[in-house]
Automatic annotation (TrEMBL), chains A, B:
Naturally occurring in which organism (per UniProt): Streptomyces coeruleorubidus
InterPro entries documented for this protein: HTH_MarR-typ, MarR/SlyA-like, WH-like_DNA-bd_sf, WH_DNA-bd_sf
Domain of life: Bacteria
Matching SUPFAM superfamilies: Winged helix' DNA-binding domain (SSF46785)
Gene3D superfamilies for the chain: Winged helix-like DNA-binding domain superfamily/Winged helix DNA-binding domain
Domain HTH marR-type: 14-146
Family matches, as Pfam families: MarR_2 (PF12802)
Any single biological process term in GO: response to stress
Gene Ontology MF term list: DNA-binding transcription factor activity
Identification of the protein by name: MarR family transcriptional regulator
Length: 151, 151
DNA sequence: AGCCTTGTGTCAAACGCTTGATTCTCATGA
DNA sequence: TCATGAGAATCAAGCGTTTGACACAAGGCT
């Protein structure tokens, strides 16, 4: 049996799955930023608004964990979005120190406009792949996430 | 036929392909950073060294384009790696202003150690998926990249 | 009750990257 | 030949994020 690691360092490292993954994600993210810019919104803002929309009333720290960023990063984004009147911070009924996050009407409208752009990109991709391949891809990506998470 | 966009903003946006893509990439990247940290190397350093290894002698600006970052970011990384003695800048024979990038012996050794870690992660993922699914995933990701690039 | 652990939010400093503008070299064309 | 344009590198400034440290509130424990 022939060892395939005689090469001191991986040539052929270019067509690894993780490289393809990185490039695809980078391309998608870049496109999202480009399309979102005319709306005066960054991808991070959209992600945060969408998260708050899907689960209203969650705290900044909890939000930080889900987005895999630090609480300070969330606080920074929240402060900006609050300044625009798209997001509001309310005091938690039990824990006075904690502050729940909720969308304002303006926030919902901004999210709706942004989501139209994002959904359009998503549609373009899924149509390019076809429904079967899209489902396949999503399944495979989920398996990768799970595999990596409990590595 | 029932329209599926009656909802003002995408519920079910959580299981979009691009979200799965983002989460998978984030998980992989995080794992790489964790495993690379004990070696005193960041993922960006590894990527740069690998790029220079696969194509020795290329310029900083060209490298920046391939990695989708700015020339300054590359210059910053190069300066650091040069300080460690893992990378060296030589004057281009024709264009004296341009500087070719080459790996030193220490750089090759550091890259070899780092690549062992990265290859191990790659192996863990591909084994978890199986060879057929791995090839499928890589193909699908390539198609996504291509679809997005000329969007 | 009092202590202590957990979790949240905030401040300050450092780091990394991007944007913008400048300088320098080499190549091309009048 | 000289001028003009394109590409590469560098400097300066600004922004966003991470890291580290601290204060505060609620629940659990002896």
């Amino acid at each position: 049996m022939i060892r395939d690691d005689e090469e001191p360092v991986g040539l052929g490292a270019l067509d690894r799955v993780t490289w393809a993954l990185r490039r695809a994600e980078l391309a998608v993210q870049t496109l999202k930023e480009q399309r979102l810019r005319p709306l005066g919104m960054a991808a991070a803002h959209y992600t945060l608004l969408m998260s708050v929309h899907s689960e209203p009333g969650l705290a900044g720290a909890e939000l930080a964990r889900r987005l895999n960023v630090t609480p300070q990063a969330v606080a920074s984004l929240v402060a900006r979005l609050e300044g625009r009147g798209q997001l509001e911070r309310r005091a938690h009924p039990r824990h006075r120190h904690v502050q729940e996050l909720h969308l304002t009407d303006a926030g919902r409208e901004a999210l709706r406009a942004a989501d139209q752009v994002i959904a359009d990109i998503e549609r373009h991709i899924t149509e390019g792949l076809g429904p079967d391949e899209s489902a396949q891809l999503r399944t495979l990506l989920e398996r990768v996430s799970k595999t990596v998470r409990d590595a």
